[in-house]
Design brief:
161 residues, alpha/beta, 34% strand, 4-stranded parallel sheet, 10 strands, Dihydrofolate Reductase, subunit A, single chain
Length: 161
């Protein structure tokens, strides 16, 4: 369940990045999705793609940070959710990292789905996705495995029981 090493992805898989972009961008007509991320995740994004286009970017940080126009800073996960729930222009909310933000999200009762890329292999990671409790979430969808750069991976979806 490794997801990072030295504030970067341990792999670069074009198919994974395309899937991430599709899932987090696809929204109802006239609406946009929001992505919530921790400060380290924000800085791990390459500058050329920051902020992630066609999505409202929210960075969680207890210290005010200078961010580009159109990016929101929130000092708490819960406050960012409240802001987004009250915004009629937002369709879906996605949590995109890091580990502590994922942990808060999957414990939240309104987290109904987990989109996860399972990467097959042993990677040197220093950050891990939190354990998914099978009593809370069940696997409902899994694609066939893809292979890229000798790395096998698949996309899975868990839903809250």
């Amino acid at each position: 369940m490794g997801i990072g090493k030295n504030n970067d992805l341990p792999w670069r898989l074009k198919g994974d990045l395309q899937y991430f972009s599709f899932v987090t961008t696809e929204a109802a007509e006239g609406k946009a999705n929001a992505v919530i991320m921790g400060r380290n995740t924000w800085y791990s994004l390459p500058e050329k793609v920051r902020p992630l286009k066609d999505r409202l970017n929210i960075v969680l940080s207890r210290e005010y940070e200078e961010v580009p126009k159109g990016v929101m800073v929130s000092d708490s996960f819960e406050d960012s959710l409240i802001t987004l729930w009250n915004d009629e222009a937002i369709d879906e909310i996605f949590i995109i990292g890091g580990a502590s933000v994922y942990a808060q999200a999957i414990k939240h009762p309104d987290c109904s789905r987990i989109y996860l890329t399972e990467v097959d292999g042993a990677f040197d990671c220093d950050v891990f996705f939190p354990e998914i409790d099978p009593k809370v979430f069940k696997l409902v969808e899994a694609t066939e495995y893809h292979e890229e750069k000798g790395i096998r991976y698949r996309f899975v979806i868990y839903e809250r029981v």
